[in-house]
Amino acid sequence: PKGSVFKYRQVLSNEAYLEAVEKEGAYPVLISPSSIFTAEEIAAGFDGIILPGGDDVSPETYGEENRLSVDCDIEMDSFHIDLIKAAYKLKKPLLGICRGFQLINVAFGGSLYQDIATDFSTQIVHKVYEKPYEGVHDVKIIEGTFLSNLFPSTLCVNSLHHQGVKKLGDGLIISATAGDGLIEAIEVDKIIGVQWHPEAMQSEMRSIFSHFIRSI
């Protein structure tokens, strides 16, 4: 906390994630990195895993030099990537949101645009931090994907990111795209990811959490 005399790293979560899970009848527990237990041992102890939004993913995780990424934490990135791989191996449901969505792509060998405004040609503004709770642009949902069972073919989403999926990870299926072609949702087996923040639009996006909890 600001002003604390302690300088330890903190394990934090926006309460919106916790509320979204509890509303579906599940109990949320925060998971921290461990020097004792492996990611596979940790993943085995939970029914499902949510990787929330957060800071930029370290470019070195996908083999690039840092040009436009900020506030990176390679230790946390590595832990989360290991959790994704463990969940996939153990067939555990995993939901990635924003940063979590991008980490799924990296875990499967994909890469990211370090800054959409610089690296990707588009007329859509994807970083709209002043409107975190409301939809600001549409995404097209791909038929036959998990999202197509939850929403109509077009969905208006909030958008709070300056990075995005560049090269799609091996074996991942695209679930939704923005009007400019930027990938907005992915899936493989019990792993799903969305670029937007459904926890901030709970009444409109609750079915994403319902789908996740039902898959447990």
Q: Would you kindly provide a written description of the structure presented here, covering whatever features stand out?
A:
With 216 residues, the chain is of the alpha+beta class. The chain has 6 helices and 9 strands, in the order ααβαβαβαββββββα. It has helices spanning 15-22, 39-44, 74-90, 99-107, 116-119, 202-214; strands at 49-51, 94-97, 112-113, 137-141, 154-157, 164-165, 173-178, 183-188, 191-194. The strands form 2 sheets. The chain has a 7-stranded mixed sheet with strand order 1-2-9-8-7-4-5, covered by helices on one side. A hairpin with a 2-residue loop joins strand 8 (183-188) and strand 9. Helix 3 packs across helix 4. The mean pLDDT is 96.
List keywords for this structure.
two-stranded antiparallel ribbon, single chain, seven-stranded mixed beta sheet, 216 residues, alpha+beta
Helix-strand blueprint:
Layout: H1 15-22, H2 39-44, E1 49-51, H3 74-90, E2 94-97, H4 99-107, E3 112-113, H5 116-119, E4 137-141, E5 154-157, E6 164-165, E7 173-178, E8 183-188, E9 191-194, H6 202-214
Parallel strand pairs: 1-2, 2-9
Antiparallel strand pairs: 3-6, 4-5, 4-7, 7-8, 8-9
Helix pairs in contact: 3-4
